[in-house]
Task: structure prediction
Amino acid sequence: MTEDDVRAPRWGWILDPRPGTWEHIGEGGEPVTATGGNTAARATSRCLHCVEALG
Result:
């Protein structure tokens, strides 16, 4: 076992997001709460690297 196996996840993610969820993050909408991983995490803005990668 490694530390990663027993440590709580740092990042959260959204399992099965509703259509349009990504587009509304950071546009004055409600923050989006993670449904997997670190479920205390909330998205309030989009990752610039992700925006560029998704085009």
Notes: The mean pLDDT is 84. The CA atoms of residues 13 and 34 lie 5 Å apart. The two ends are 38 Å apart (CA to CA). The chain has three helices and four strands.
